[in-house]
């Protein structure tokens, strides 16, 4: 159980939620685990299948406290809300911003600022941790260019210019990421980002983990009442969760890329779990996919200090923290959306 930004997160999958007076009660096998007053809460997010009592759902619906139900792995199931005025107001403002490219750019540049900042510090951390095993000079050159790009991003009010700067930053970052692969170099190397299909083992891992992160981000946005399919940087495309792709940009390097590097460097995966098809596509076998999924769930339990909230939360709750902060910005409760800045 974790509470921040007036949202209660119930992360144990076998906890039943019930009502006692004006309080939410958490039960496991009829044993009371916790009790909290509901008047302090705006929403409840619960991971698992055990559920909530009709009395609690009715109480929360009447008082406009949303309850979001997710699987224990974080996939969105459903969201119970009362009168929809709050949710409609939030989404209508989201759509207004999305329709205005200048306003979209002002939010999108914060996503990309977070992405470039975190990419820089992933590289900087490597120069500190492995100074004798990597090309420090090359990496320092890349981080210097990322710093310059970040300064330019902060001034941008045009989406096309922003995309150009993001692309330049990606070239700098991707050009040196191979230095961070310290083990199994014969079978795991990164020359460039390729997808649809991935053409090497590293890109196969990245594509799979990015999909996991995108699904977690989509569930987080839906849980707070935002439309995951209407973005600001990524424009509308049928079937694409554009806003999820927007917000996950700042988490790609620091969350997903570092996770993939750890799988390789700790030899959690190896070349035997990958095969190449006739068209050049590289795919993972089922056992490797299960290994990655297990490691991803373990990663989501690791604690981190959130840079804006100044609270320790699990990595798996970071997408929810950012979704809540974005919703607060769109509602006008924050002057600016604060990207996740890791160091």
From TrEMBL:
EC number: 3.1.-.-
Gene3D superfamilies: CRISPR-associated endonuclease Cas1, C-terminal domain (1.20.120.920), CRISPR-associated endonuclease Cas1, N-terminal domain (3.100.10.20)
Cofactor(s) it depends on: Mg(2+); Mn(2+)
GO biological process: defense response to virus; maintenance of CRISPR repeat elements
Keyword DNA-binding in annotation: yes
Sequence positions that bind Mn(2+): 166, 234, 249
Molecular function GO labels: DNA binding; DNA endonuclease activity; hydrolase activity; metal ion binding
CDD domains: Cas1_I-C
Domain of life per record: Bacteria
Keywords, ordered alphabetically: Antiviral defense, DNA-binding, Endonuclease, Hydrolase, Magnesium, Manganese, Metal-binding, Nuclease
Self-association state and partner proteins as the record states: Homodimer, forms a heterotetramer with a Cas2 homodimer.
Biological function: CRISPR (clustered regularly interspaced short palindromic repeat), is an adaptive immune system that provides protection against mobile genetic elements (viruses, transposable elements and conjugative plasmids). CRISPR clusters contain spacers, sequences complementary to antecedent mobile elements, and target invading nucleic acids. CRISPR clusters are transcribed and processed into CRISPR RNA (crRNA). Acts as a dsDNA endonuclease. Involved in the integration of spacer DNA into the CRISPR cassette.
Family statement: Belongs to the CRISPR-associated endonuclease Cas1 family.
Protein name per UniProt: CRISPR-associated endonuclease Cas1
Species in which this protein is naturally found: Pontibacillus litoralis JSM 072002
